[in-house]
Design goal:
17 strands, 485 residues, nine-stranded mixed sheet
């Protein structure tokens, strides 16, 4: 039998493989009990750097006496002991095994991780699956058409730059069959006002449709004409079904670009804000700068503050302003990078009009682009916290407004959790926690004035929602106007 001190962890490893070390030595004829001669013990070479010795193999403890003669090769001869003509120690060291000993346990065992082997689903597909599950029941039969529009090419409008000295631009756009949809809506509003005046003279009344029927209903129940649309902003679009693209804008003699390409529906929140001359206006989430540029096109801002918490996006805002706005006007715009949730502590109750275009799931971007996609797995928590962030920004916008001022809240999402629910909760919090009374204004006249250009949803309890459609592929854009008492 092999002495007890030799059967350490090595003996355990060998027995685990079903063969004992003693049987191996007897089979080789080198064990004294088998009548073999002792194994010569040359001086073993030092192991290569970085290679550990065999796991569990250890020499006899000090004080236990010399090793018995028959077992001295078990430890000392491993460096040169040959089994079948092959050195044993290198085989054991590299885990290749030796006859009768089986494979030695590996020191470092590779373990595949689920995150590295699981199939990676693109963020765009995750977004589409999420929208199918949430917007399908919400929109019902309209969802397949909206879904197809989201996955098709986006339609743009050309916001004319009034600061550029390019008078021929409008005529050139009209030659390509583009029309200024804001001027068309203003003419339509004027005709409705005239028709309403004629009806009042004849003693006729027009019953409201839906929740307003395109008219703002007064508390007494008397329908009034739609609110006038400012004509200073000019934005050209191609007719429904026309997918012609605008060519890139060109600079004038001063280096200012002639028009800015943007989703034409993004101008509706600016129009709903109805900026009056000398108003102090705050764009709380201004970047990348399309709505800020539209506010400047009104020519009515007494002071404009453009803020965005992202410094990189603020740089983009600076680029837009420098490309479209002359220096003297650009210097009058206050550009900051504060957290919009803290704006009330900086300049509370200061502005006549506040635009709160909050971060959202950006539905069209989420199903089309992988870069900066909110549906990336690493941004799950950020996406779940969006309604809370939107609520805090809207509350901050209400607090930044003077009594009698207006706040327009907008998103580019179809989600009611980010739209009506945020507005309802903000009205409640402003009343209970800050003793500020606000109410949502009826914007149904926008559907009447712009129904030839955009497709609107008729299911919004508060505000208006532009739905993407293959013939008018703008949006989605949600906007709601709040008035502070």
């Amino acid at each position: 039998m092999m002495p007890e001190w030799c059967i350490g962890d090595l003996g355990t490893a060998a027995l685990r493989c079903g063969v004992s070390v003693v049987q191996d030595l007897q089979a080789c004829g080198r064990h004294p009990a088998a009548g073999g001669s002792p194994i010569p013990i040359p001086i073993p070479r030092p192991p290569p750097r970085g290679c550990g010795r065999l796991p569990g193999l250890r020499p006899p403890a000090a004080g236990t006496g010399p090793a018995p003669e028959g077992a001295r090769g078990v430890w000392g001869g491993f460096g040169a002991m040959a089994v079948g003509g092959r050195p044993l120690l290198p085989l054991l060291r590299w885990g290749l095994g030796a006859p009768g000993l089986g494979a030695a346990p590996r020191r470092h065992r590779h373990k595949e991780k689920w995150a590295a082997t699981a199939p990676r689903i693109p963020a765009t597909r995750l977004a589409l699956h999420h929208f199918d599950a949430s917007y399908g029941p919400q929109l019902g039969e309209r969802w397949p058409a909206v879904r197809a529009a989201l996955l098709c090419e986006h339609k743009y409008g050309a916001l004319l730059n009034s600061f550029a000295s390019a008078d021929h631009v409008a005529q050139e756009l009209e030659l390509h069959n583009a029309t200024d949809f804001i001027s068309e809506a203003a003419r339509k509003a004027q005709s409705l006002v005239q028709g309403s005046a004629v009806g009042v003279e004849k003693g006729e009344s027009v019953p409201p449709e839906g929740h307003g029927g395109g008219r703002t209903v007064t508390p007494a129940g008397t329908p009034t004409p739609p609110a006038p649309i400012g004509s200073n902003i000019k934005c050209y679009t191609f007719p429904r079904g026309d997918i012609t693209r605008f060519r890139p804008a060109w600079p004038d003699s001063l280096g200012l670009l002639s028009y800015y390409l943007m989703d034409a529906a993004s101008l509706l929140p600016v129009l709903a804000l109805s900026v009056q001359p000398d108003d102090f206006v705050l764009d709380l989430c201004a970047a990348p700068g399309g709505k800020t540029l539209a506010l400047l096109q009104t020519g009515a801002c007494g002071h404009l503050a453009a803020n965005d918490v992202s410094i990189s996006r603020t740089k983009r805002l600076y680029q837009i302003l420098s490309s479209y706005v002359p220096k003297n006007v650009r210097e009058a715009v206050s550009v900051t990078s504060y957290d919009g949730r803290d704006w009330a502590e900086l300049e509370g109750g200061t502005f006549h009009k506040v635009l709160v275009d909050v971060p959202c799931t950006t539905d069209r971007h989420s199903v089309m682009e992988t870069d900066n996609n909110i549906f990336h797995r690493r941004r799950t928590k950020e996406r779940q916290m969006l309604p809370m962030l939107q609520l805090q920004l809207l509350i901050s916008g209400i607090l930044a407004t003077k009594p009698g001022g207006d706040v327009v809240y907008s998103t580019c999402s179809l989600s009611p959790l980010q739209n009506e629910y945020v507005v309802e909760r903000a009205i409640e919090i402003a009343e209970t926690q800050f003793n500020i009374t606000t109410h949502a204004e009826d914007l149904s006249h926008f559907r009447t004035l712009f129904q030839d250009t955009f497709s609107f949803s008729s299911d919004c309890r508060l505000g208006e929602l532009v739905l993407p459609h293959l013939t008018a592929n703008f949006g989605p854009i949600y906007f709601c106007k709040l008035h502070r008492a």
